[in-house]
Every structure is written in structure tokens, then in C-alpha cells.
Amino acid sequence: MNVILIGAPGSGKGTQSRYLMDKHNFIQLSTGDLLRAAIAAKTAVGLEAKGLMDQGKLVPDDVMIKLVDSYVEQNKGKSIIFDGFPRTVAQAENLELVLKKNSSAIGKVIYFRINPKLLVKRLTGRRTCVKCGEIYHIDSKPSSKGDICEKCGGELKQRPDDRKEVIGERLDQFSKNTGPTIDYYIKKNMLAEVDCEKDPELILKDIEKILGLSN
Ligand SMILES: [Zn+2]
Questions:
Q1: Is 199 part of a structural domain of the chain?
Q2: The domain containing residue 87 runs over which residues?
Q3: Burial letters for 91-122: b for 16+ Cβ neighbours within 10 Å, e otherwise?
Q4: What pTM did the predictor assign?
Q5: Which pLDDT tens digit goes with each residue over 51-77?
Q6: Is 170 tagged catalytic?
Q7: Count of structural domains, the chain
């Protein structure tokens, strides 16, 4: 089953995504990774995207959709997590077409609801391993090795995105884009909400229930 995760940065969406991959064999589509890979491989779409980015332009929806299309095609039969995509209603509609073409569909859309104040606290305290991407938090999940990753020994850093100065902007941008997308999935009766102020393990249980995954 394919699932879309929608949540502001800091809502804990990334942690749940990792759980779903580790425990339930999901794979995750990241449009950023797809874009980087296509550019590195110099595919037709990759070259098109690079040309635009070199001119300082945003990569338009139709290019992103082509990337998503080939990813879905290459991963037929697997359960995909769409994280950070679709961001807009137009992307949501296009994703539906792409999946349909590949005899697939979205099973559920999970929205991570969280209070904005808590979100700011979560984001500013977040530290990310530069090597393996493991996420820590100075209050709720500190590394026992200080600013070194427990898993791989990599260095823990604050992502530039998580600095207090830029968070307000990020959150505004997020609600502006995702509000209509969330409404779109509510109308289609596909949206389920999780309360992400709980412990991550409990949130996972809620998600497993929503997706009908039992242990
Ligand atoms: Zn690490």
C-alpha cells in the first residue's frame, strides 16, 4: 500500500517514515534524492532539470512528475511512502494519474497534527548526523556521545533550516502550500490524522492501525 505523509518540518514525520521502512518494508520516495540522482545520471529529465536550476529557476511540476513516474514504474509492487510530495493540489492530481497508469493508488494520507509552539521547540533543538541522517534532539533524544552520532560516529549538526531565524518562514510556507492539499484529501475521504505530540512508538501504533498493519 502506498501512503502519503504530510506534516510540518519537526512533526516527527521523518522518524515514522524510518519506522515504516524498517518494520514494514516500505520504501521512501524523496523528490530531492530523485532529482539529484537524475542529474548525476545525466538522464533526459535530469539534464532538463539541471538546465533550469542553472538558470536559477525552480524545477516545474511536469519535470518532477516525470521523475516520480519513472520511480513508481521501477518500483512496481512495492509499498511507497511519499514524503514531502505532493505539496500542491496540482501535484496531488498528477500523482493520482501516474499511479493509475502504473495500476497503483494511494491507500492513505496521514496528516501529522502538531501545535506550532511545540514545533519550534522541536526544530531548534534538533541535531542531524551528517553521515547517516540519524536525528537527535538536545532535550528529548540526546546522543550519549555528545555531538557524535551513536550509530555511525558521524558529526551531529544543526541543519541550517532548523535555525530559529528561518523556522517561521518555513512554517508559513508549509501551511500556505499544504492547507489546500489537506482539504483535497479530506474531500476524497483519504485523510487520517495522527497526534504527533505522543511518543514516537505510540504514534507508530496509531499509524499501523490506520494502515491496517498488524505485528
Ligand atoms: Zn550517524
A1: yes
A2: 2-26+79-115+172-211
A3: bbebbeebbeebebebebbbbbebeeeebeeb
A4: 0.79
A5: 988 888 888 888 899 999 999 999 999
A6: yes
A7: 1
Note the pLDDT of residue 62: 87
Q: Which amino acid is at 102?
A: N
C-alpha cell at 195: 497526534
CA of 152 to the centre of ligand 1 (A): 4
According to DSSP, the β-strands at 191-195 and 106-113 are parallel
pLDDT in tens, 85-141: 898 899 999 999 999 999 999 999 999 988 888 888 888 999 999 999 998 999 989
Whether 62 is covered by a domain: the verdict is no
Cα of 151 to ligand 1 centre, how many Å?
5
Catalytic residue (choose from 18, 66, 122, 126)? 126
The residue annotated as part of the active site, out of 13, 18, 122, 127, is: 13
Strand ranges for 47-161 from DSSP E? 80-83, 106-113, 126-129, 135-137, 156-157
